[in-house]
Amino acid sequence: MRKKRIIITVVVAFCVLVGSFFIMRFGVLGRIYNAISRYVVQDKVESEEESPEEFMYETEHDKDGTEFVVEYRKQIGTNLKTGEEVEIWEDTADPKIIYDNYYKGKIEKIEDNKIYFMVDKEEKEETKFVYEDVKDYQVVFDIDTYNFEEDPSSHYWCDSILVNPKGPLESSKFLHSAGELEFVVGEYLGLQDYMCEDYYTGNRYKTLVFYLY
Predict the structure, then answer these.
(1) What are the tens digits of pLDDT across the range 124-145?
(2) Taking the model in full, what pTM does it have?
(3) Phi, psi of 205, deg, nearest 5
(4) 3-class SS string, 52-108
């Protein structure tokens, strides 16, 4: 079941990234993993009568040993690489979004494992994926505050930083330090700054996604 949960987590995160890619690249956001592409599944559209939904429940534990019950829904999809039909069990509880910010601009500098990002556009208030010009201002991301170790008590994996280069989405890469972004300092980028809260444990996880144009 642990393996299934990891796959589900990766799929959810990857779907978020797929959305982010198309929204920010084509005026259409959101996670997460180049090495996980072999696990990605595509929801199957049922043209006829749908079968009754199947659920299962599993007791799990947070890092303090406290029990909680997770509800899973059975999903049938298609492996995008092999074309084979696959069965997954999807957690029915959505994470709580703490913030989800979208910017456009440039990395001004990288210093002491911090990213100094100069914003010139941001998502327009009360809209989704519509950007407006703003007076330039700087946001700073301290990568030392990101925890890249997998949390075994979480359904949402760990903090993460991703960069999507010019090319296929599956070529996106995970980064673990600010210095790994030196090659795009000064280039015009899209940026998503996201935090969610685990529905069951209340633990919070941060994600940064950089998009190259």
Answers:
(1) 877 777 899 999 999 999 999 9
(2) 0.68
(3) -135, 135
(4) CCCEEEEEEECCCCCEEEEEEEEEEEEECCCCCEEEEEEECCCCEEEEEEEEEEEEE
